[in-house]
Design a protein that fits this description.
Blueprint (H helix, E strand, L loop, with lengths): L2 H24 L2 H16 L9 H22 L11 H9 L16 H11 L1 H7 L4 H12 L4 H8 L3 H17 L3 H23 L2 H7 E9 L10 E4 L1 H10 L1 H4 L2 E6 L2 E6 L7 E7 L5 E7 L2 H6 L2 E3 L9
Parallel strand pairs: 1-6
Antiparallel strand pairs: 1-2, 3-4, 3-7, 4-5, 5-6
Helix pairs in contact: 1-2, 1-3, 2-3, 2-4, 3-7, 3-8, 7-8, 7-9, 8-9, 10-11
């Protein structure tokens, strides 16, 4: 077998593991795929003849790539979603980047059921907590507590001592143990269910389905940047709010579920550039009581966002 084919086959064996590591570090499936693709490109440009443990080497590389992405988010909060749908990743999701391993089976990269399973294995509530950690704390906790990487190797990834890596993981662990509560986890699950149904109905322009999701006294507020008039608006009542949602159905096609400041909402980010975020308030009856539409650049910059895979629904 030629070296290039052997390398592609070896990388394919580790791809699922690398993707799982990157997803837990980044909290975004598209960013995780981007990190894995970057890892492949680095592998192809490296002499691996002296690498004794390819799996360990690849895990270290994808962790470093993910750490750089986390740090970049902190430095550039004005782009909270980042380049969430970069062209190379979209190509990989639809048919693998030329020359990358798994080109014949690349559909698995974009399989919504696979994405939902991976997301649920982490849990939305845990993702919310992980997003409050510093990049170094998150990496130390994920690599050691979730993937059993020794602290000396974690420290090497971070460029810190073994003891420093241990302390970072310990700090992260205390935060994770302190939250979330079962009520919080249930609330996030309820929010995700309602937000998914809202997005589906909006995409289809289904007036009746949208009305069914709204509390009769629902309110919608939109800042000046989100309104056609250029002035902040407030709508009250299910009918008025639904008409506004149906009018925005074209935008819904390019919208995605996301964690918006720790709650499940929706973001409109064509080509990965954040334009609008919707924040929902959902009651115990699974009805939306309030919608906040945010498009002002200053407000968007202050949001803490993470894309979520969508629920694929029941199998056909």
């Amino acid at each position: 077998m030629p070296d290039s084919e052997w390398l592609a086959a070896a990388f394919a064996e580790h791809r699922d593991h690398l993707r799982a590591v990157a997803y837990r570090l980044l909290g975004s499936m598209t960013d995780a795929d981007d990190a894995v693709q970057d890892t492949w490109l680095r592998l192809t440009g490296t002499d691996t003849s002296e690498v004794e443990n390819l799996g360990g080497w690849l895990t270290t590389v994808v962790a470093r790539v993910s750490l750089n992405m986390l740090r970049s988010r902190r430095r550039h909060p004005e782009e909270p979603v980042g380049n969430s749908w970069p062209a190379p990743v979209e190509a990989a999701r639809n048919g693998a980047v030329a020359g990358s391993p798994g080109a014949g089976a690349a559909a698995s990269l974009g399989d919504p059921e696979d994405e939902a399973v991976l997301a649920d294995s982490v849990g939305l509530a845990l993702l919310v907590v992980l997003d409050t950690l510093t990049p170094a704390e998150r990496l130390a906790f994920v690599l050691h507590d979730m993937f059993a990487m020794p602290f000396d190797e974690v420290g090497a990834v971070l460029g810190r001592s073994t003891e420093a890596a241990r302390q970072l993981a310990s700090r992260a662990r205390r935060r994770v143990r302190g939250a979330p509560s079962p009520d919080r986890a249930a609330s996030l699950a309820r929010q995700r269910e309602v937000a998914t149904a809202f997005l589906t109905a909006a995409r289809g322009g289904d007036f009746a389905a949208l009305v069914a999701l709204l509390d009769s006294d629902v309110t919608l507020t939109a800042d000046a940047a989100a309104a056609l008039s250029g002035k902040a608006v407030a709508l009250h009542g299910a009918d008025a709010v639904t008409r506004g949602a149906v009018l925005a159905a074209g935008r819904a096609a390019e919208s995605r579920l996301a964690l918006v400041d720790g709650s499940v909402g929706i973001v409109f980010a064509p080509a990965g550039h954040l334009r609008v975020a919707l924040s929902f308030t959902v009651n115990q009856a699974r009805r939306i009581t309030a919608i906040d539409v945010i498009a002002d650049p200053d407000r968007l910059r202050r949001l803490n966002l993470a894309l979520l895979p969508e629920d694929p629904g029941p199998a056909a």
